[in-house]
Amino acid sequence: MPKSWCRMFPGLAWQAAQARHFVAALLEDEAADLADSAVLVVGELAANAVRHTRSGWYRGWFLVVVHFSDDLVRIEVVDQGGDEEPRVRSVARHVEEGGRGLMMVSSCAKDWGVKDRPSGARCVWAELARNGS
Fold first, then answer.
1. Sign of CA dihedral 129, 74, 114, 63
2. First to last CA, the chain
3. 3-state DSSP call for residue 79?
4. E strands along the chain, which residues?
5. Which residue(s) pair with 9 in the sheet?
6. Which residues partner with 32 through β-bridges?
């Protein structure tokens, strides 16, 4: 039977680190590479939520949900929505500082995507394989 955990965080930049600690604690008994990938994924998604959506506005918030099934760990970050759809950006020059977060998520995840919510919120999710599946 799948298990799920969630935690809401204030929409402050430093809370992305707290989201990473939350996920790391949940995955402490998993393989190190899975835990490392999950921490990277939630860190990027949380940082994007705060930086690029209304979650980073005054009194904003984001929600981290972690689902465990036999073969997958699914990480969801629900933000308060924004004007632009999250997407992998083409990074043409090596000197650009931003734009690589979703590219890293895509390389770590078995699959990832975006789901808009009726309330205007948005869920960005990534699925990571467990046990080498």
1. negative
2. 18
3. strand
4. 3-10, 61-68, 72-79, 111-116, 122-129
5. 62
6. none
What does DSSP assign to residue 90?
A: P
Read off the amino acid at residue 61: W
C-beta of residue 64 within 8 angstroms of C-beta of residue 9: yes
Read off the tokens for 74: 């699914």
Tokens linked to 34: 């899975």
pLDDT at 11 over 70: yes
- Model-wide pTM > 0.85: yes
Kindly report, residue by residue over 24-34, the tens digit of the pLDDT: 999 999 999 99
Query: How far is CA 75 from each of CA 23, 83, 96, 108, rounded to the nearest angstrom?
Result: 9, 22, 27, 12
Question: Does 87 have pLDDT greater than 60?
Answer: no
Q: Which residue stretches of 28-95 are H helix?
A: 32-52
C-alpha 84, offset from chain centre:
17
